[in-house]
Amino acid sequence: MSATTAELQPGTTPAVPEPAVKAVRRAFSTRWASVAVVVIAVLWTIPTLGLFITSFRPAADVANSGWWTFFQNPSITFSNYSSVLLGGGYNTAGGLSSFFVNSLVIAIPGALFPLAIATMAAYSLAWVPFRGSDWLFFAIFALQVVPLQMALIPLLRLFSTGFHIGNVQVFPPMQFNDSAWAFSRLWIAHTMFALPLAIFLLHNFMSQLPRDLMEAARVDGANHFVTFRKIVLPLALPAIASFAIFQFLWVWNDLLVALTFGNTTTQPLNARLEQQVGNFGSHLELLTAGAFISIIVPLIVFLSLQRYFVRGLLAGSVKG
Amino acid sequence: MRTATDWNAVLQDALPKFGAATIAVIVFFAILLLVFLAAGYASGRIARPITILILLGPAILLMIIGLVIPAIRTVVLSFYDANSIKFVGGANYHYAFTNPDIQRVLINTAMWIIITPIVATALGLFLAILIDKMKHESVAKSLIFLPMAISFVGASIIWGLVYEWRQNTPGTNQVGLLSQIVIWLGWKNPPDWLLWQPWNTFLLMVIMIWVQTGFAMVVLSAAIKNVPGDVLEAASLDGATGFGLFRRITLPMVRGTVIVVLTTIMIAVLKIFDIVATMTGGNYSTSVLANEMFNQTFVQGDAGHGAALAVVLFACVIPLVVYNVVQLRKERTVR
């Protein structure tokens, strides 16, 4: 803990030259802070590094030695990845590639749909006020409190039996079995669960757009739909992008919704991997390769879009 | 069975799926565009109600069907039996608080809520303070924040490798890092970590701490940077140094943020499902509330028990969220 007890320095350079002792102490404390942070950063990275290295080692090496022995006895193979992706390794048809496809097919519409619906709703709540719209906004805001778990059982029943009043079918059951349309259950579920937070965040952003701009558009004869498309959408793009990234990653990383509303056709990578941990735990080289395939997409998003990513993540960290 | 290089089969599987997704997205946006264009012609007194209906209607409808009604239904179901046919009064809640297995679950959940957020926030604060002194921070900061991007399933597999265990007999090499480290440190026969009660729960918490520390660090680091330099300077002119300066000046100024981070992690921890499901499936006394809710409902097929546990979870989340929101409001008005 030596670093915490060291001095906290103000950001500016003092006008008076420091005494030599103090300058040395300051440099020293900065040095120790850097060392401590680097040590922790390395510690934080080692588990992921272990996964990464294991996924490239031959099966026999993985079974008989720890990944850290790789540095004394380096041998690399790509066969774990090819067998995991295309089959052969996991005792199923097609390997993980079809689950990777499922993850994409769930996550892209699962991010686009709520985004579009929430953007419209947020604009309406911010710029088309009506009696009770404040109250409605507060109700949506409060809905964020409801955990996913509260919706699972009734929503699943709605999907499987539909909804009817008496003999009139108001809402048909959504049974698609092995058709590609089975994904629509997941798209709808993810859209529903994303809306409260999405509307809240986008509303906060949109309500801060300059009023003059909206009024100028009105004077020019634009109706709300034109204003929305031509003025609000372009201006709100950074906020929309942040939330899009957050929602995409949330859906990509989700397990609970996929397990509840999905079937074997729609199983995403995460659900598949969760199953494999039990069944194929002894084949660590395959499990690690599969896990790496599942985390590579979020990592790429993180590394390339870090600014948007952090903003979206921090704003959305209460979701679920 | 497909052969290892059968890309054709992969394509045959992928094309209908991508096709369905593409059609769904195109149809969805085409309908939106058409409705927008058509509604643009509405004029006079009906223009405004139609605008509101089109913009707000879909969202409201989806939230009512997907969240409001199900939440109310879940509360109702928690008073019914396993098949939701017979009214059983408070029997499910009685079960939830008296069954020894569920009591264990509640104790585990309580430990998760207390320990994980405190450790993650403390570590995050410690890192944020250190990072505040550094000139080049970005790479280290990114590395610590990185786990936040990884799914809980991915994180669990990463740590599953760390906790991998082999009976320590001559000729056997350890594959898991934790086993190897404690053997190097002189512990002859370490236990099978995930079966090692009650410590296995703490080993699972480590995963959550690993993920959440970066979050705490990033938020707190931003808060510390917001502490005005002249306040610190004035305090240091008055003779405050080092830890005293931090405790008297910086800490009180970021106190609100610390509480927000703490409660945010608590809410996330309450809903934690993936880590326990992936690592132990809730076995070996490691189950927590969200995991048990899923098990009771979909594995045991008891909707009554599941609904009651969901309501208990909900009841635990409410005060945290309310407190969090009040704190956030306060933060905003201060700034």
Task: Explain how this protein is built.
The complex is a heterodimer of chains A (320) and B (335). By secondary structure, chain A is mostly helical. Chain A has 2 domains: 2-86, no CATH class; 97-270 and 296-316, MetI-like (MetI-like fold), CATH 1.10.3720.10. Chain A has helices at 2-5, 20-55, 59-64, 79-86, 97-127, 133-143, 149-161, 183-206, 211-219, 224-235, 237-253, 256-261, 269-279, 284-304, 306-316; strands at 163-165, 168-171. Chain A has a two-stranded antiparallel ribbon with strand order 1-2. In chain A, β1 (163-165) and β2 form a beta hairpin. The longest helix of chain A is centred in the first third of the chain and has 36 residues, at 20-55. The two termini of chain A are 36 Å apart. Chain B has 335 residues and is an all-alpha fold. Chain B has 2 domains: 7-89, no CATH class; 92-334, MetI-like fold (Orthogonal Bundle), CATH 1.10.3720.10. Helices cover 74% and strands 0% of the residues of chain B. Chain B is built from 13 helices and no strands. In chain B, α5 packs antiparallel against α8 (199-226). The longest helix of chain B has 34 residues, at 100-133. Classes of the chains: A mainly alpha (320), B mainly alpha (335). The interface between A and B is large, with 134 and 135 residues.
